[in-house]
Prior knowledge:
6 strands, single chain
Amino acid sequence: MSQQLSYTAFADSERIAHGDLKAVAVAVKTRVDAREPRALLVFADQTGAQIDLDLRGDLDQVLRALEAPAPAGEPDSKRGRGRPKLGVVGREVTLLPRHWEWLKAQPGGASVALRNLVEKARSGNQTQDRLRTGREAVYRFMSAMAGNEAGFEEASRALFAGDGPAFADRTRHWPPDVREFLDRLAVHAFDPGRRSGNRLPGVQGRRPGPARTGPGR
């Protein structure tokens, strides 16, 4: 079962909406139509990536734009070599001659050997991959929302050093809604042994509460 995606909208540093993309788009469009003077930004909760909404036209047009299908992929006739039914896709790989010789000598040939090597590397690096992805998500969001906050450079260094307590200390005076969003992302960015306790401060049991979605404060 796929994970339900959720999003959060901010007016400057105040969280004004949280939910699926349709609900967040309605809240943001309402603010735009009410001539909200503050900057409105939307972020994906899972990745910290900023989301661009097409807010042209009325609300119905905005919602229809969200429902528009993504561009279709290449027709089957244009696909390269591979076994699509198995999810295998052909790509070019550049190796030295001795690498090709070794691969060809493996049971099943070069393709099977390469897939086995990739799967082994993936299984052996899951923790590091999770931490790297988590830190990228945190930095992506904090660069957009807290780049001018005091302690940003120090917090960035603590983040990539994997120092959870230092990161929490450098960000503790940032706007509450920004800090709460960061704390939720940061759960995946630090080794449990280097967090402050079992979790970063502000994360324990917290979930986004009701956001103010009306046209005014």
